[in-house]
Amino acid sequence: MRTPALARTSALAVVLTVGLALLSWPSSVPASASCAGPEILVGGGLRPELPVGGGLKVEGRYFTDGCDDYQQQDVGGCSSPPPITMRPFEDVTLQVRQGDRVVDLATTDAGTAAEQQLGEVTWEVVLPADLQPGRAVLVTDQGGRLEVRVRR
User: What does pTM read for this prediction?
Assistant: First the structure.
């Protein structure tokens, strides 16, 4: 014969076990996150110092149209990935701005999913020799901005 306290404890254990199992069950609802906008990077510094007249490699990422930043998971944790609908930007122009002056440095297309470089860009440029030492900004016509310091 069971005592009432033992029966309550057993029922509570069953309810907790079922509840925890349901909480950890894979969902078929897509999870979403925010999509990053275009970003420009030079060497990893927060405000890189760039030599006037010197060669420079500028990299960018997230240069795409659209956002597929979600994951669908079917019951059991198996699913096929959704089709890529993001399109890489074409003709992304990198500029340097200093005061009222704007100089186009280079133009390139962003990488594709087939290349496994979706939205990635790389520009190999030379900063104009007549830029003034001090603050400047690298920007693109598709978004993305990086404050830099120009030095002689």
Answer: 0.69
